[in-house]
Amino acid sequence: MLENTEIQILEEVSRSRRGTVFFVDNFLRIATAKTVAKALERLVQDGKLYRAATGMYVRPVEDEVIGPILPDIETIAAAIAKRDKARIVPTGSYALYKLGLTTQVPLNIVYYTDASPRKVTVGKQTITFKKASARSLAATGEISKLVIQALRTLGKDKVTADELRLIGERLKDEKPYHLQHDINVAPEWIRQLLRPLINTRMHD
What is the dihedral of CA 16, 17, 23, 27, to 10 degrees? Predict the structure, then answer.
């Protein structure tokens, strides 16, 4: 039974793009959760799958020089959000890093979520999911939602001219519809900072 479960799991995994993150839940139509978990652990021991984090498995991308490449933090966070049917938004120092406002990669990456709060350890890094209000998760633009969280982190009256200039440059790549929507759901002090940047963009 267990060997047959392993074969079916590998067949399903092989049909997916390398680097895709899998959970026990993905294979419950094959066998019970307990049997699937045991099969996955045996596949890891045999080197046919890798454990990306606790309870998460992957057939990694293979690089000719450096060997297997495991998914990055963002891919794992997105996979968790998809499984939980949750919204997530990068916050704090990770939002600053994603925008290029800092070059320091944070070891503790924090996401707001509308699902249950949790922590996931990935190598030396930790993903922390913090339960947040619907308003904190209302932004829809990939860039503008980062901008809102980055500005929250920097703080009111503490944003420098250079930071605003860089933010303005990044916002040029945001879709107008998402940008307008996200300004409307942002705190008023953030709206006041962003409106001049958007007006400049419109006249460029």
Answer: 0
Q: What is the gyration radius of the CA atoms in the chain, in angstroms?
A: 20
pLDDT value at residue 200: 59
Indicate which CATH number applies to the domain containing 56.
1.10.10
Cα(194)–Cα(95) distance, integer angstroms: 16
Q: How many domains does the chain have?
A: 2
User: How many whole angstroms separate alpha carbon 139 and alpha carbon 54?
Assistant: 30
Based on the domain organization, do 9 and 82 belong to the same domain?
A: no
Average pLDDT over residues 148-160: 93
State how far the Cα of 137 lies from the Cα of 67, in Å rounded to an integer: 37
Determine which helix (DSSP H) or strand (DSSP E) holds 63, and give its type and residue range.
strand 61-63
The verdict on 93 and 191 lying in the same domain is yes
Q: For residue 92, list its beta bridge partners.
A: none
Choose the final residue of a domain: 43, 69, 95. Answer: 69
**What per-residue confidence (pLDDT) applies to 201?**
55
Checking if the pLDDT of 56 tops 70, the result is: yes
- Report pLDDT for 3: 81
Which residue range forms the structural domain that includes residue 36? 2-69
